[in-house]
Amino acid sequence: MRSASAKRQGLDEKALDEGIYNHAESAVFTDEEKAIMRYVEKISTDPDSFGDDDWADLKKHLSEEEIAELAMFLFMNLGFHTFFGTLKFYPMFAPDGRLVSQEESERIYGAAPESLQGQAAE
Fold first, then answer.
1. What DSSP element (H or E) covers 55?
2. 1 vs 32, 94, 111, CA distance in Å?
3. Are residues 55 and 68 in the same domain?
4. In Å, how far from its chain's centre is CA 32?
5. DSSP one-letter code for 49
6. What is the pLDDT of residues 5-56, one digit of tens each?
7. Residue 41 is part of which domain span?
8. How many domains does the structure of the chain reveal?
9. Model's pTM, two decimal places?
């Protein structure tokens, strides 16, 4: 499991993969969840592409307070990943949720874990 906390909340590998690779067309997620994933994807990859229609769609499902909370969580996590990427820091947890050393994490995730690809780890 990529996230022990996600597993505790009932997500499984199939749902995580569906969210990563097919959220737009997925029958697994609600319209609200899809709107949140579109927001996260656009803000994470091309924030200038997030326009008025995107805001209107997100506001159908979330209050301004919820959007602000989501944005803070997203920006904090993006900042952490960027910072740790510059340090070539590996995930602290194995897919099964065990706490692992950086050396073991590198063996598990490879020379550049997926979370670091495209960043300073190249």
1. helix 52-61
2. 24, 8, 19
3. no
4. 16
5. G
6. 777 787 777 887 887 788 888 888 899 999 999 999 898 889 899 999 999 9
7. 1-62
8. 2
9. 0.65
**Residue 87: burial class (beta carbons within 10 Å; 0-12, 13-18, 19+):** exposed
CB burial readout 47-76, b (16+ within 10 A) else e: eeeeeeeeeeebeebbeeeebeebeeeeee
Residues 67-93 have pLDDT tens digits of 999 999 999 988 887 887 788 778 788
| Alpha carbons 37 and 20: distance in angstroms, whole number | 9
Single-letter code of the amino acid located at 49: S
Q: Are residues 58 and 68 in the same domain?
A: no
Element holding 35 (H helix, E strand): helix 31-45
Distance, in Å, from the CA atom of 76 to the CA atom of 73, rounded to the nearest integer, reads: 5
The C-alpha atoms of residue 85 and residue 29 are separated, in whole angstroms, by 30
**Number of other residues whose CB lies within 10 A of the CB of residue 107:** 12
Distance in angstroms (rounded) separating the CA atoms of residues 22 and 41: 12
